User: Fold this.
Amino acid sequence: MLALLWIEGLLRRRWVRVVGMTVCVALAVALFASLGAFITTSNVSMTQRAITGVPVDWQVELKPGTEAGTAIKTISSATGAKLVRETGFAEITAFTAKTGATVQTTGAGKALGLPADYAKSFPGEVRYLAGAHEGVLLAQQTAANLHVGVGDTIQLSSPGGTLTSLAVDGIIDLPNADSLFQIVGAPPGAGATAPPDNVVVLPLDQWHALFDGVASFRPDAVRTQVHLKVAQGLPTNPSAAYSQIVARAHNLEAGLAGAGTVGNNLAATLDAARKDAVYSELLFLFLGLPGVVLAWLLAASAGASGHERRRREQALLRTRGASPARIVRLAAAEAALVGLLGTAIGLGAAYVADRYVLAGGAMATSGAIVAWAAAAAVLGFVLAASSIVFPAQRDARLLTVRAATAEVGSVTSPLWQRLGVDFVLLAGSGLIFWQSMKDAYQVVLVPEGVPSISINYLTLLAPIMFWIGAALLAWRVGDLMLGRGRKAMSVVMKPIAGRLSRVVTAGMSRQRRMLARSLVLTALAVSFAISVAVFNTTYAAQARVDAELSNGADVSLTSGSTGLPPSAVANVRGIPGVQEAQPMQHRLGYVGNDLQDLYGIDPAAIGRATPMSDAYFQGGSARQILDALAAAPDGILVSDETVKDFQLQPGDTVKIRVQFASDRAYHEVPFRYVGVAREFPTAPHDSFLVANAAYISKMTGSPTFETLLVKTTPSASPAGVATAARGLFGPASGVKVTDVTTELRATLSGLTAIDLSGLTKLELVFAVVMAIMASGLMLVLGFAERRRSFAIAHALGATTRQLAAFVWSEAAFVTLGGAVLGVLSGWLEAAMIVKILTGVFDPPPEALSVPWVYLTGVAATVVLSIVVAGAVAINAARRPALSVIRDL
Amino acid sequence: MTKTLVYARDLSKDYLAGGQVTHALAGASFELRTGDLTALTGPSGSGKTTLLHLIAGLDTPSTGDIAWPGIGLRDSLRPSHVTIAFQSPSLIASLSVAENVALPLLLAGTAEDEADAATATILEAMDLADLAAKLPEELSGGQSQRVALARALVIRPALLLADEPTGQQDRGHADKLLDFLLSFAEECGTTILVATHDPAVAARMTHSWVLTDGTLTTEGSS
Assistant:
């Protein structure tokens, strides 16, 4: 009963504080639950995208002599997979075709036997370009090599010398040739193998008829694989899904008792996804948790702003005979009210954010989010209890009635300040950061093919220690300014407080604990807004760079080994909206046994078509490295890994085997090592080579270029230019045209990049709300608690201007101090997070990107909230409530 | 030659509390002249504090007129001409004793040095100099009340309104305080209106007003 009366009284007379605390609790709950939704959504989408992006989950290669029908039955029953198909792979020593008066003969290739419904069963594996969808289907590149089309006849040379003539029914493309022709059972980390240049696909029966006989004398030349889809019922978390799919593959191999080996394409894709999943959790840690902690601090501070009044109320209750236990029960009732309202509002806000900002719908669809919501609710109640009950309990236990009536608390330095914990934390943070950065460092290490994930937790301590250390240092600075620096502050405050500056500063000095708290909260809110905004903007900028890097340029045209026609450059340059088009060779070359992509460029001109970032190179700027390449006609840029593997020194000769046009065989060509390339447009992330196109043309006898990089004018749409470029080449040409806009969409929603857009919006909104809460609301609550002091000043005859001097002096101290310290710590925090999470960026950013518009908006919002808070306080002080006057 | 400082006719003040109208003051008419030393007595809740607030310009009457012909308009009463010492200790918690006392002077635009000197003088005169650097929370109830009175006097007002100024003092301190107050009034020409329950205080005033259930009865020299 007393609790109900107490709550009624709170809602009637202390509603500002109750509302303030409720909003803070709601903020923390909403942010926590939203971040949970983000992680859940990210995990689900990463796993789903990994699953849907793999055309064939497993390629089970059967040991020669194994009966396919029996193996399929075993595989079907062991995996429960409904989609299981037999395929055949046979070596072809040469393809020949006679067109007109000429005869074309290619090198070795493969004949693939596929069942009739294969393309339908495994979408994405076969793409029809021309002619029929069944019968003898020739790969586009092979058709180009042989100069044949639909209806022409080709001849296959099988091992053993058998010649088979076949009429071509259709032309196809095999987009996933790398995985389709993988060496099943190759150890993890083994070098990549190039897919065959020449491929013919035959109906499975026809394939058996042609090659079953070959198996008897050349079993190594004929292989049977069982392709299947097994992704049903996998966990939503990529790591868990990876572990399960690897274990299931091992289980099947055990069941096959050596008769088959699993080529686990799904595991390979999930292997990459689980790294992204870890990064998404780290982003939660770095970008989300500080916000939750800040909301917690705000709630605690809102509770603490009523601390003096509550102490007096406690004293009154105790003089009326209330026991400490009863006082704590009353505080618990208040905490329950705040916790209940805050949690309900917070979860509601999180639901709205999930549906309309994150657009994940995780709350509606995922069971995992229930755990997050429950945790958020617990957080809400714990937060309310820690802000209300624990202080009340401490006061009830420790304070005498006399002490409880005191209005200004002790201003002795807290223990951490005397021990210099802030300096220790900042120094520790710097040390850990420096130690981590001086070595080649990765915060997350996911060894290929190994289930365990290694996270460098020590490095994660650096930003956390910095955050706490910076907050404590801000407190120390605020305390110092109002303590020992009181005289100086008095001079600084003269423009605002005039003749009252000494008294105003003296009052502020005695309340420096409260003001330092407000300053720290403002600094943390500003720091949070800056670090989140700078990180997100840098991330978005790098996503664009990544998209350009992946796509090569605004628009890029690629073809197979036949290359683009020489006229393509001039034709594409003629498309409206094209600013520049630069050809680039894309060949393959063997460095030792390692097959790498080799790019032939014109170093002086490539930068006109696509940005050459300094981050692409090592040991110098982009300009310096490209100049060095241009100066050495036989120069070559290699990866850092290659430099280490082969112990290369600048000027060393590197012999690379590349394909010659004359005999289509690989021959050694000497190159001179001139520099290191870390990234390059269209290049894969691992090893690749960059050399002068003129030298490659001269040595291989082929000036053909396979890629055309196109820069569009600022006003032109890359997608529009891409459409126009597609119109120049027919669909059967095999020329693929892609644009950066489409690539950016794919990157942002893709597996290699965590979709931060929803999280970004959410956090930026939260940052603004918290900045308002930290600055405006804290001031309002502080002023509300001191309305008696303002009423006394009013009764003594203070004018509105003089009352304003008190208000604006405090507001200026909190706002300016908080802003300066917040900007400084926020910037450093952002720089540290960007550096630590380098693995999220691809390539690493050269500099931080600053979202000036957003930050100006935050600054304006903070100033506006301070002005509103000040105006409310001045208005209330100018006309104090009669009840307050009568209490004097 | 004395002049009228405050003049009121048919002054009433009603409060609405809990849906009920309380008549705190009903048709009070009075005049305060320079040099008057007036005791305002009456039982608790009779409207004494309300009347002081109306005279100090902190509150406005529901009906009736009040004017300050010897001082000026309502807006110019505080901090220089009319000061009030409240019933409960009303020091600003975050300011020291000296800062609390100096505040009215600073609010009135007095230079810091002058304000400091005047503060030191009044604290010395009221035996409070030892407490100058202390915070309100470090004072006893009686000390706080004396500091509040010092703050009301430091500006040498034309009219001092004191609400139970000896309420928290022992007899010895109360007598000393009253002695000081009367000598201060004589020296500075300050008019004093004291709301009190203490017959000893009332006995030393030149005029006596009695409030009973909001009705004021004024008498001449006691």
Notes: The longest strand of chain A covers residues 578-591. The CA atoms of residues 747 and 753 of chain A lie 6 Å apart. Chain A touches chain B at residues 405-408, 499-500, 502-503, 506-508, 510-511, 786, 789, 792-793, 795-799, 802, 882, 885-888 (CB under 8 Å).
